[in-house]
């Protein structure tokens, strides 16, 4: 068989791949269509699908589409090869024949991406640091919450995208997200007067309902998906933070003097500093610490005090511990 006249060809369009991608919502409707141009009666004798630079393709030789009187043809989704797989890029090659000679036409390359982006497995969520010199976020501070996804994202009109935490809307910052990286989403909340979020409440109760993402997809058009599992952003009520200071500690009202490494504790998880433990050269006023501990006892924070006893042993006189131990037991 010879080669048809060079004017014999067909257009080839992948249905659902206007952006040269087939995504998860498009894969079950993928099809081919085109329009033949040429002299005489032309038929399609073969359609092949080539992955990447492979020279051996997956061929369809039966159940081929007929060319209509106006030159149009269509290959139904049911006739598409089942071998077309996620993450692969394909071109379609159509062979035309006039009964004596043949000609081939090649489509543009199309990539199958049918996997939805999800949060990465390890540490997908990160919180911005509390401003220096503060024990917690205060009115006017902006809290940033960054989510890292498994794939590069496209951000279009993202208005209304947010994460709800303890009834507060952390709104997507599109500019900050783009700056942070192509797989990152940055949500922000400006602390208002009277706000209070305890560490134990700082979580995403149900990501499927508490996360809203509008017009955010991967490059193929797949929308991010989340599980309903609760996301814990602050893992414990009692968190220690070590800071090294020269002279006065940055926390107001705490005068440690000299060089110190205080251990700071938020005992009740409300974001405020409850206890400072200092060892070595710069002990705190033990009367003040005793008062704090006694106040905790009044609040029935007995289990917390027991955990702190070992840390405080060098500061509080032994007789004080005997009294506290008696009160706890």
TrEMBL record:
Question: Matching SUPFAM superfamilies, A to Z?
Answer: Integrin alpha N-terminal domain
Q: What is this protein called?
A: Bacterial Ig-like domain-containing protein
Q: What is the lineage of its organism?
A: Bacteria, Pseudomonadati, Pseudomonadota, Gammaproteobacteria, Candidatus Pseudothioglobaceae
């Amino acid at each position: 068989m010879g080669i048809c006249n060079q004017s014999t060809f067909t257009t080839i369009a992948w249905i659902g791949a206007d952006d040269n991608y087939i995504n998860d919502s498009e894969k079950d409707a993928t099809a081919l269509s085109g329009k033949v141009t040429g002299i005489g009666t032309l038929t399609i004798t073969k359609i092949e699908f080539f992955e990447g630079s492979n020279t051996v393709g997956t061929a369809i030789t039966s159940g081929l589409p007929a060319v209509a009187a106006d030159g149009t043809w269509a290959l139904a989704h049911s006739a598409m090869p089942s071998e077309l797989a996620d993450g692969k890029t394909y071109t379609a090659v159509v062979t035309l024949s006039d009964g004596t000679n043949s000609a081939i036409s090649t489509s543009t390359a199309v990539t199958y991406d049918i996997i939805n982006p999800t949060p990465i497995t390890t540490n997908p969520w990160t919180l911005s640091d509390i401003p220096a010199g503060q024990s917690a976020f205060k009115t006017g501070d902006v809290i940033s919450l960054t989510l890292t996804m498994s794939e590069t994202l496209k951000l279009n009109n993202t208005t209304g995208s947010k994460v709800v935490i303890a009834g507060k809307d952390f709104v997507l910052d599109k500019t900050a997200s783009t700056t942070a990286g192509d797989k990152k989403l940055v949500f922000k909340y400006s602390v208002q007067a009277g706000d209070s979020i305890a560490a134990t409440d700082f979580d995403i109760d149900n990501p499927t309902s508490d996360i809203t993402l509008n017009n955010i997809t991967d490059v193929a058009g797949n929308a991010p998906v989340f599980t309903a599992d609760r996301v814990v952003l602050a893992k414990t009520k009692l968190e220690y933070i070590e800071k090294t200071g020269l002279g006065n500690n940055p926390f107001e009202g705490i005068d440690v003097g000299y060089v110190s490494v205080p251990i700071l504790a938020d005992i009740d998880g409300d974001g405020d500093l409850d206890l400072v433990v200092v060892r070595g050269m710069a002990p705190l006023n033990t009367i003040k610490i005793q008062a704090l501990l006694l106040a905790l006892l009044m609040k029935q924070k007995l289990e917390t005090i027991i955990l702190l006893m070992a840390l405080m042993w060098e500061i509080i006189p032994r007789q004080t511990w005997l009294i506290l131990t008696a009160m706890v037991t």
